[in-house]
Design brief:
136 residues, Signal recognition particle alu RNA binding heterodimer, srp9/1, 4-stranded mixed beta sheet, 26% helix, globular
């Protein structure tokens, strides 16, 4: 089995896609006006509109209602990414939750919320143990 993607349901697909394109530098591929994907080497971030929910099961997902999942992106230098995103957060009215901070497990993390309030973590392994763990 291979992890393929995570899908975010939103009431404003274009806005969320623009946010993730600007935040990640990855260009989205649009299938319909209700569905786009940002493909990275590790997995794909799919963004879908509320009109797609009934295709799975009516009422099975609600936009802007996530309180448990953090979408994470591995970056080469989280401090540089933070510097490059200065002003970006206010453009999208998002919250910067934590400036780059080295976590006890050795990753340096930048935590913020996307326009729908979903938590996003950009991180860089910085300790020898975290770097070795990434190589596995």
């Amino acid at each position: 089995m291979e992890f393929a993607s995570i899908r975010i349901i939103t009431s404003d697909v274009a806005r969320l896609v623009e946010f993730y394109e600007r935040a990640t530098g990855v260009q989205a591929t649009w299938a319909t006006e209700d569905f786009a994907e940002l493909a990275t080497s590790g997995a794909t971030l799919a963004i879908a509109g509320t009109r797609t929910v009934p295709l799975f099961a009516p009422g099975s997902a609600r936009p802007a209602d996530n309180h448990s999942v953090i979408t994470e992106f591995l970056v080469d230098d989280v401090d540089l990414v933070h510097q490059n995103l200065t002003g970006f957060f206010t453009d999208f009215f998002t919250d910067l939750v934590t400036e780059p901070t080295t976590m006890p497990w050795g990753n340096r993390s930048l935590l913020f919320r996307d326009p729908d309030g979903n938590l996003v973590n950009f991180f860089t392994p910085v300790t020898p143990a975290a770097i070795e763990n990434l190589a596995r």
